[in-house]
C-alpha cells in the first residue's frame, strides 16, 4: 500500500508541475501584450480655479487660510465701497428729482402743470411714505458711522 501511496503522490506532483509549466508558457506567450494605462480621471471644475487650488493646498495651513479670508474680506469691502456710494447717489438724485418735480408742480400756475393727478399722487406717496427717505437716510447713516 505504501507503493500505491507513493505512486499517486508522484502523479500529483507531476500533474502540478505540468500545470505550473503550462501557466509559465502562457505567461511567456502573453508577455508581448501591453496593458493600456488607465484613463486619466477628469479634473473637477474647481481644479482649474487658482483660488480653489490654493485653498486645497493650504487647507491644513490655518494661518494661510485666515490670510486668504482677510484678503477676500478686503476685496469685498473695496467693492462695497464703490457700490454703496453709487446707490446712495442714484437714490438721492431720484428723491431730489421727485421732490423738486412735486414742489414745482404745486408752485407753478395751473396752466403749466405737466403731471397728471395719478402721477402727483404716486410721487407724493413715494416722498412722504418714508420708504425712499428711509432707504437714503439709513444708507447714509451706516456709511457715516462706519467711517
What does this 3D model show about the protein?
With 147 residues, the protein is mainly α. It has one domain. It is 75% helix and 0% strand. It contains five helices and no strands. α3 (62-107) crosses α5. The longest helix has 46 residues, at 62-107. It is rod-shaped, with a radius of gyration of 42 Å. Residues 1-5 have low confidence and may be disordered.
Write the layout of secondary structure elements.
Blueprint: H1 2-29, H2 50-57, H3 62-107, H4 117-128, H5 131-146
Helix pairs in contact: 3-4, 3-5
Short note summarizing the structure:
This protein is mainly α.
Major sheet description? none
Determine the strand fraction and express it as a percent band.
under 5%
Structural class: mainly alpha
Q: Cα distance, first to last residue? A: 108 Å
Poorly predicted ranges: 1-5
- The share of residues in helices is over 70%
Query: How many strands?
Result: 0
**Gross morphology:** rod-shaped
Amino acid at each position: 500500500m505504501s507503493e500505491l501511496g507513493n505512486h499517486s503522490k508522484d502523479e500529483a506532483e507531476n500533474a502540478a508541475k505540468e500545470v505550473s509549466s503550462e501557466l509559465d508558457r502562457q505567461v511567456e506567450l502573453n508577455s508581448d501584450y501591453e496593458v493600456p494605462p488607465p484613463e486619466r480621471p477628469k479634473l473637477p471644475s474647481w481644479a482649474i480655479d487658482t483660488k480653489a487650488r490654493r485653498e486645497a493646498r493650504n487647507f491644513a495651513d490655518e494661518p494661510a487660510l485666515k490670510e486668504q479670508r482677510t484678503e477676500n474680506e478686503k476685496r469685498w469691502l473695496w467693492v462695497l465701497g464703490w457700490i454703496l456710494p453709487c446707490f446712495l447717489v442714484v437714490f438721492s438724485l431720484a428723491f431730489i428729482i421727485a421732490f423738486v418735480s412735486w414742489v414745482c408742480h404745486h408752485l407753478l400756475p395751473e396752466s403749466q402743470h405737466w403731471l397728471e393727478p395719478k402721477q402727483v399722487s404716486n410721487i407724493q406717496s413715494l416722498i412722504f411714505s418714508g420708504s425712499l427717505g428711509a432707504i437714503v437716510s439709513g444708507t447714509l447713516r451706516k456709511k457715516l458711522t462706519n467711517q
